[in-house]
Amino acid sequence: xxxxxxxxxxxxxxxxxxxxxxxxxxxxxxxxxxxxxxxxxxxxxxxxxxxxxxxxxxxxxxxxxxxxxxxxxxxxxxxxxxxxxxxxxxxxxxxxxxxxxxxxxxxxxxxxxxxxxxxxxxxxxxxxxxxxxxxxxxxxxxxxxxxxxxxxxxxxxxxxxxxxxxxxxxxxxxxxxxxxxxxxxxxxxxxxxxxxxxxxxxxxxxxxxxxxxxxxxxxxxxxxxxxxxxxxxxxxxxxxxxxxxxxxxxxxxxxxxxxxxxxxxxxxxxxxxxxxxxxxxxxxxxxxxxxx
Length: 292
What we know:
Helix content: 25-40%
Strand order of the largest sheet: 1-4-3-2-5-6
Strand content: 15-25%
Number of helices: 11
Shape: globular
């Protein structure tokens, strides 16, 4: 695997592969890699693409400077994992490389309601920072395939909006891959390393909450979203979570809140345990309840 710290050196590598008509797959990350990230590398390779992974902890998407400072950094281990996964290139830029003009007066992206709902409401400016860095990374890598994990469901929706409303060359395909979970059901996350073994067990209340919703609807106990949200939140608090930012029943395309559970919907969750904020989601296809 080749490692590049500048956009110019990376683009020389990409141009060489393009001259051979090789697809370019891109997996943007902030490091602290786990099996979820590596599954994206594997998916890119399944498409026959030369795969570029980036590791860049983007300061403009953190609302809390302490959260930025605490974000796990495991570069040596990350490089080993990428090499074993068969990644062809790692883009490892500095802050100066990605923000040569500084981090003031950055462009504004018109995201509409997508940045006002759920994560947007709790982390003002977060998705603006995401769009700035993803836009710059896409201009540097110019991939054919952009691979992202669906655990960050709203982030994927924001990037899908970005691709639809801004011009990129070449036209790229966004591939959203399913959330990879530990055997217990806990969604894999770089933040999980900050959880104690006991907190990891307590955090399973999120996964069990999805089961609670599935059974409540399937057994015709209730389809009232407000009731299900309250039950889910109480389940998390009883398990040891300090706070619940939101439990949302939403349209999977525009993320607007819904109450009609006869359609496909997604449940979005954000809650904190042990000072670690976890997010997760579960898609509920309408076919799942067609016998109800």
